[in-house]
Amino acid sequence: MIQQLTRVLQIFSCFALVFFFANGWVLAGQGENLTKLYLVQMPFTPPPQPDFTPGEDATPAPEKLNEQEQERLGSLLPLLDGNQELWAIGEFVHFGKHSVPHLLKALKMPGPRIRFNAVETLSMIRDSSAVPALVELALDPKEESKVRSHALRVATRLDPNEVIPAIAGMAKDPNSTIRNTAVFEARYVHRKEVLPIIIGVIPDPEKYVSITARDSFWILTRFSGPIHDWEISTPEKRKEWAKEWWDWWEENKNRFDRKAAPGTSPESPANMDVS
User: Fold this and answer.
1) Span 235-250, pLDDT tens digits
2) Which domains does the chain have, with CATH numbers?
3) Residues 6 or more apart from 173 whose CB is under 8 A from it?
4) Where in 120-247 does DSSP place strands (E)?
5) Fewer C-beta within 10 Å: the chain N or C terminus?
6) What would the pLDDT profile of 121-149 be if each residue is shown by its tens digit?
7) DSSP per-residue letters across 107-153
């Protein structure tokens, strides 16, 4: 009994203390002479910055290579296929135009990886003297399709005016991947001669090749043709539709002999609604 009374008194004491302090805080909060609090930014000293040391410029390639350096570049060719291929590519790029004759030899070496990396290295060096060899490689029917396609891409970037024979030959290739690459790269060749080549690929048996040819022709001429549903088209339909491009070409080919006047670009045929 005494223990119960003690617990009751303790509980009431706790409530009394809570009420007393809470009432005191409320009254204190209603005073007029309260000290106002302001949030301030404490002084901050940033940590010391590390010393920056500018990198050193790479040693420029010599103007003329001696016999030892020429032999060294020749010995790097087999390394274009292997674990050190990136290092070998960097070495060829460092020597720049001096590496081009050696890389042209690599285009005829056994091993598609060597030839592919040689093409990629030539794209980094950006020497247009390599275009004839790249065109020859792109037209080689015995070469792998990925190497031929890459050779045409690089040659087009280096000198688009020299790749028209390659585009014309590859547009008739039995491999659909090669035909697609030919009409895709044709959009970067702003020459009148490529337009009939592209039209000749519009009735292609492969739908994706035909669509690529259509889009390339639109990029060069801004002619999209009548609206057709290319996604469900058949080779017979595409042959019929290609006549519309030939008719347009016969009526407009003379205007490509002069510079076209700037104007508003029409909507891409890929974005047109055929529903």
Assistant:
1) 899 999 999 999 999 8
2) 66-126 (1.25.10)
3) 141, 179, 182
4) none
5) C
6) 999 999 899 999 999 999 999 999 999 99
7) TTSS-HHHHHHHHHHHHHHT-GGGHHHHHHHHT-TTS-HHHHHHHHH
